[in-house]
Amino acid sequence: MMPWFRRFAPDPDPPVRLLCFPHAGGAASAYRGLSALRPGGAEVLAVQYPGRQDRFAEPCLESIGALADAVHAALAPDQTATPLALFGHSMGALVAYEVARRIEHGGGTVEVLAVSGRVGPGVRPEAGADGERRLEEAELIEEVRALGGVSDELLDDRDLLQLALPALRADFHAVRTYRGPSGPLLRCPVVAVKGAEDPRVTTAGATAWRSSTSGPFALRTLPGGHFYRTGQLDEVGGVLTEVLGPPTRRPQRIGQVT
Predict the structure, then answer these.
(1) CA distances from 38 to 41, 134, 164, 215, 237 (A)
(2) What is the pTM (predicted TM-score) of this model?
(3) Separation CA 171–CA 157 (nearest Å)
(4) Into which CATH architecture does domain 5-256 fall?
(5) Is 72 a catalytic residue?
(6) Of residues 35, 72, 89, 90, which has the active-site annotation?
(7) Domain ranges in the chain?
(8) Cis (ω within 30 of 0) for the bond into 3?
(9) Residue 225 parent element (H or E)
């Protein structure tokens, strides 16, 4: 399991495993609460990117493709033998999507891809003449403040901020340089979830995930901004429980999530 995956509530024989991908600057611990909820009876595996928490000494990866390649390579046969669903928030939605593409390209199956707080992979909100320019420190901090999810105390504490900056720089660069998919559509169902007041993810942007799959698609909107999940863990777990039903019912269940 180490170093890429964390199990906070191990289950040797779950009906489905839910592989969860953190946001930019985030870590596996962001999914500790969801692990305890076990949505749909799933065992939650939380991805731990290098350059943070217990992997702090490792160099960060600076592209979505490199992250997806590494996660896909780390998936053991016993993890993919059990039905596998993916969930990612913000940057994690892109990494989850790219891992799903790699699984399907290799002949595997993804039960459901749930993407949160991110526009479809063909939409580039960071596009522009300086889209690939690395943000200056002040610009990066302003971006993080605008999205929320990181306390002002951390951003105003110079010592703590210096510990967080390498991961934030790498992750924001990965998102800003991501160019979207090329190749066949996914076959798995896709469910997009967004906060109603998210300043970066419009309804149209979230609905653009429909173009990523030939399978069923649904959009769910919950109250809140980009980090709507904060304080709404039960609601997020409820959405995932709805879509992680028995395989024969999944398309119908996903069609009911609006």
Answers:
(1) 5, 38, 29, 25, 8
(2) 0.90
(3) 20
(4) 3-Layer(aba) Sandwich (3.40)
(5) no
(6) 90
(7) 5-256
(8) yes
(9) none
pLDDT truncated to tens, each residue of the chain (258 aa)?
Answer: 568 999 999 998 999 999 999 999 999 999 999 999 999 999 999 999 999 999 999 999 999 999 999 999 999 776 667 899 999 999 999 999 999 999 999 999 999 999 999 999 988 755 444 556 788 878 888 888 878 767 777 777 888 888 888 999 999 999 999 988 878 999 999 999 999 999 889 999 999 999 999 999 999 999 999 999 888 899 999 999 999 976 555 555 566 554
Is 214 a residue of the active site?
Answer: no
Residue 211: Cβ-neighbour burial (10 angstroms; 0-12, 13-18, 19+)? middle
| SS3 label, residue 34 | helix
Q: How many CB atoms lie within 10 A of CB 244?
A: 25
| CA gap 149, 26 in Å, rounded | 10
Radius of gyration of the chain (CA): 17
Nearest one of 35, 33, 47 to 233, comparing CA atoms? 33
